[in-house]
Design goal:
The chain has a four-stranded mixed beta sheet, covered by helices on one side. The chain starts with a helix and ends in an 18-residue tail after the last helix. The protein folds into two domains: 73 residues, Glutaredoxin; 149 residues, Glutathione S-transferase Yfyf (Class Pi), Chain A, domain 2 (Up-down Bundle), CATH 1.20.1050. By secondary structure, it is mainly α. Helix 5 packs antiparallel against helix 8. Helix content is 58%, strand content 6%. Bound molecules: glutathione and 2-acetamido-2-deoxy-beta-D-glucopyranose (NAG) (2 copies). One 2-acetamido-2-deoxy-beta-D-glucopyranose binds next to loops. Pfam families: GST_C_6 (PF17171), GST_N_4 (PF17172). This is Failed axon connections homolog isoform X3. Belongs to the FAX family. It comes from Crassostrea virginica.
Length: 286
């Protein structure tokens, strides 16, 4: 102990200088990205999202939803896999920019590109169908989402599922995500339920989706609508990330949902295999 104290005393100046240099270097590296302003091609939607997932093109349902929509609507777009460090103006991890304009929230992104490119993929459906699709999109994005997040990052973890390997993210990230989801879902409300109750409300959502879909190809029939993107983005996470979990057992009871996921994948992701397996911070390199 004494020798350490002596060392610190003798070299205190050097220690301080190295620490200061270290902090300065880290700051410069962090800021560097802000100094070098990237130039993106004009009239192209730049989708800022996290890296590719190991089993789905994104482990973020909202990113998979938005990218599926950009494909469905045939919008010229590119991905920038930077949103771990470069979040939206609302602090979330999927957003777009277009000719320098930035838009946060997947649903607002969809409405924005609809306006810019003068697109309405839902116009041929009846008002009643469009309203039902809206209600389903909200159920999935604002309710089912929390139950899946709680399963992945809280309950599955408690039951010994190796969610870090499954999602190909470091353990620390899983822990941090767990804390975040716990807090956020508590505020939202779903996180106040017991695990058995969360399981119950999750099943109610999945059952409603399954019944609504029935024997149809897509939510509203033979043709896809924009809400299919939200449903696919979310269900894909259960469908392709299958931990040994109660949530997956429930999902598997509704087999038309699984067929639906495969259909959506076939329709919009012919390059699926090239868009997976290469890490949560980076794009796929295949
Ligand atoms: N309503 C938003 C939801 C986005 C969202 O919740 N994203 C999560 C990841 S799946 C996120 O960024 N969480 C980080 C945080 O809340 O700090 C959308 O549709 O884009
Ligand atoms: C985040 O993205 C915006 C828009 O492209 C860019 O101007 C900004 O420099 C980026 N920030 C960082 C930290 O990369
Ligand atoms: C809507 O219907 C018209 C007429 O059948 C068709 O030409 C058009 O492609 C349809 N639009 C969409 C977005 O499905």
């Amino acid at each position: 102990m004494d020798s350490i104290r002596d060392f610190v005393k003798t070299y205190s100046r050097e220690i301080c200088i190295s620490a200061a240099v270290g902090v300065a270097l880290v700051t410069i590296i962090k800021r560097r990205k802000k100094w070098i302003k990237k130039v993106y091609p004009a009239n192209t939607v730049v989708h800022h999202q996290i890296g590719r997932g190991p089993h789905t093109p994104s482990i973020t349902p909202f990113a998979l939803k938005l990218e599926t929509y950009l494909r469905m609507a045939k919008i010229p777009y590119m991905n920038e896999h930077d949103s771990i460090t470069n979040k939206s103006s609302k602090g979330k991890m999927t957003w777009i920019e277009y000719n320098g304009e930035e838009v946060a929230d997947s649903e607002f992104c969809i409405q924005y590109v609809n306006r810019k490119f003068n697109i309405d993929l839902d116009k041929n459906f009846s008002e009643e169908d469009q309203a039902a699709a809206r209600a389903i999109q909200r159920m999935v994005d604002e309710h089912l989402y929390w139950t899946i997040g709680l399963y992945w990052f809280v309950y599955d973890l408690q039951h010994g599922v190796d969610i870090a390997t499954l999602l190909n993210v470091p353990w620390l990230v899983v822990r941090l995500a767990g804390n975040m989801i716990k807090k956020q879902s508590y505020s939202q409300g779903v996180g106040r339920h017991s695990e058995a109750e969360v399981q119950h409300v999750m099943e109610e959502d999945l059952q409603a989706l399954s019944k609504f879909l029935g024997k149809k190809k897509f939510l509203l029939g033979e043709r896809t609508c924009s809400a299919d993107c939200a449903v696919f983005g979310m269900l894909a996470q259960i469908h392709w990330h299958s931990p040994d979990s109660e949530s997956v057992k429930i999902y598997k009871k509704y087999s038309n949902l699984g067929d639906y996921c495969e259909r959506m994948k076939e329709e919009f992701w012919p390059d699926w295999d090239d868009c997976i397996t290469h890490g949560w911070t980076r794009k796929a390199t295949k």
